Each structure stands twice: as C-alpha cells, then as structure tokens.
C-alpha cells in the first residue's frame, strides 16, 4: 500500500499533525515509527489503518487491516467471544471459520478462559489480549500495532512477537509503534522517524549499513560483561540513531549517527552490562570487532 | 453493511441505553396520546384515531433523536477505531445511525399499532360486537407520518451530536432546540406530516408525498455530514 503526500490536521484552525508524508508499505514489510510523544505516531498509524482519513493526500491499496489502538477500553457490554464475533463478521468471517479463528487467536495469547468474561470486568492486561485478538482475526493483510505490547504478560508479548513474524513471513505487513526500543529487534524492520510533522526514513538495520555511511559515523567500542544478555547487540541495533551494532560475544562495536551519539552512549552505559573502551570517529580499521587486536 | 449494523444494534440493546427513550415513547403514546395534549377530558370528548396517530408520530421525533444520541455516544472511540479498521470509518458511523433508526422504526410500528387498537377498535355495548373504526388510509397515513418523524429525528440527532458536536451540554441543547423547531415550524416535514394526518390546523404547507421527500433529503444530508466528519475529525 502507498501513502502519497498525506497531511492531517483535526480542524481548520488546528496545526498540522502530519505534513506531506509519503511512504510505501510492501508486502512482507515490517515498519517501525519512532518519535517523541505527540509527534504524530498514533495519528499516522490511524491513517495507515484506515481508521481516519487524511486531510490531504491519498492512501491507496490498503489490504484487510487489523488495528490495535493505543488504549483499548473494556467499557463494552459484551463478553469477549461475542465482541470478537462481531469484529470477525465485519472482517467477512462467518460460521465455523469464525469460531475457530476466535479460538485460535485467544489460544495464541493464552486467553482462552477470557471467552466468556464480560469486557467490562476485565483488567488492563485481559482487555489488551482481547484488543490484540480482534486485530489478529483476519488471517492475512496489514497489522497495525499502536503500543500493542503494553499490559500483556510475558507469554502474550512473546506470542505477539511470533504472530508478527508469522504475518511478515506469510506476505502480510506489520506497522508498529512501541516505546520499548528493543521491540522486534530480531526482525528486519524498516525504521521511520516522525519529527516536526514530517516522516524521515532512518537507515536500515545493520546489514544495510554501507561503508560510505560508516565514514561519518561515531564509533563506540565496548567490552561485554559476562552477564550481558544474548540479544544485547540486536537490542542496541534498534535504538534510534544506531546504524549498526555487532558483537562477537566479548566485544561490541556500535556505529551511531553523529547527531545522536551522546544518546546512544548513554543508552549503552545504562545497560550496566557494557564497559566502554573507546569512542571515536569513522569506521573501525576492520569492520569486524573479532578481527581487531586488544585495546 | 449487515455485520456493522448488527454490532451497533447489539451495542445499543446490551448497553440498555435504549430504555430511557423507550420510556419516553411509552409514556408519550400511552398516556398523552389517549388523554390528548392540554385536555384531560379529551378521552371523554373522544380523541379520534387520526389525532392519536399524529401524536404518536410527533413524539417519535425526540424519541428517535434520543435513541440516536444514545447510539452515537455508546461506543468508546478506541472500540470505534477497531471497527473502522475493519470496514472504514464512514461505514461504522452509518451503521450506528441505521441501528438507531431500526429501533426507532420498531417503536413507531408499536405506536401505530397501539393507536389503532386503542382508538380504532371499539366494543359496542348495545350490539355486543367489535367495531373497527380504522381504515387503511388512516393506518397508511399514520405510518407515513411516523416514518417522516423518524427520519427527521434521526437527521437532527446526526447533525447535533458527536462527532459534530462533542460537548454534551451543547449537543443536548441544540438537539432539543431542533426538535422543538421540527414540531412548531410550519415548513418542517414533521410538522407538515402530522398536520396532514389530522392534528392541529388542517391547511397543508406541503403536498402529500413532498414531506416524505423532504425528510429523506434532510436525512441523506445529515448522515453524509456525520459520516464525513467521523472519517475526518475523529481524534
């Protein structure tokens, strides 16, 4: 699907929340939007999901869409199963297929026992499972997740990660916003930053980082503590402003954008599992940390 | 379109928000309709069927406006967003309006039936037989008037409630004002429809049928505006 020169404001005298945003979401793509609070992430997700129409520009080619809103309200007068049946019917499901889809989505999130529970009486985490389940009802197409992980238990978070991976592998696309920088870092996400009502595409994750880009980067070398978690490099790779993050198990090499190297450095220090050895300009003599000598 | 309407209708029924307007309608039709407005002795003087039908149509304007407001405020915006992702924001808004009209139509039919059975059927004491005083043209006229009032009530509520007017005080004030205008203004389709059935001054301000066309036109415009704003301005 494609967004062409999309602009959005909520009233004629109100400021533009988004201005001339153009982007394409390919089949099989995972797209992440980053930005400060109030930068228009949720608004853009709503436009992508088809919940809200843009004030300017066009959105074309949107497939079947499941949307998890930022805050899902439990104040609906239905038990979960009845609510999911209504949403499923709106997605064109019916009969046996609808029932099995509802079971599958609830099971996946570990929420089978929620089927008969009235939405009104649900806790934040329980209703968030229902919110995610309703978005997963369509088997394929686009999945739009606005901080969908918030409030889920660990198992359900992992299940949602898996559902995202499965959707991408199946040729669908997933667009998401999350305040956790390491979210879905193990998947190859296309990252966009929203700032000043405009969207700019950040560089692709580690694999796409070319030598020319690396020349202007800030290089941070660190030694990894014994207790450093396994996915640390991938997690740092998803931090805004990080071009690449690689490790050989003992040493970590991070290439950061010059403008955000301070923030990246702070983030590295905050992990508590890294000991910074060197900060410098440009790429390492050899791009492979394992190939370097001692500090 | 059936699935979203079904969802909205279930939401209206299960939220119990339909009950207050239903009580208003029941009180309006059963009590005031028989007693006649402003005349406690109307029953003794014999309120005729056409007046009863006109009254039950008239009361349908605020009842449908209230039902529509209840429907338009029943769904939390995040729940609406999930539904809009499934079928589009315009469709979701139209589904809510259709659900409220469906329930209002059921009320209107009940109202006409009540008037026909309470005022159009008389037991004659002298011959001990049931006399049906209602003709098909009475009933048809009553149904047409009820339909017009239903559409006017829906159009009013669509224009003066969320997403167009979000603040409850302003929305209710505007809706009430518009209902009074629809009743009292001679050019209003609801006013014309009720007079054509036989309530108040008999001279016609609209030819027969024109009031229905005007009510439909009003409804189409109001629903289109409501759907447009729902798609564009939902925050």
**Mean pLDDT of chain B, nearest integer?**
88
| H/E element sequence of chain B | HHHHHHEEHHHH
Globular, elongated, flat, extended or rod-shaped: what is the shape of chain A? globular
Number of helices of chain A: 8
Number of strands of chain A: 13
- State the low-pLDDT regions of chain A, or none: 205-213, 285-295
Question: Could you describe the largest sheet of chain A, including whether it forms a barrel?
Answer: 6 strands, mixed
Kindly state the percentage of residues in helix of chain A.
25-40%
**Computed CA radius of gyration of chain A, to the nearest angstrom:** 21 Å
- The end-to-end distance of chain B, rounded to whole angstroms, is 24 Å
Could you give the distance between the termini of chain A?
A: 49 Å
- How much beta of chain B, percentage-wise? under 5%
Uncertain residue segments of chain B: 36-45
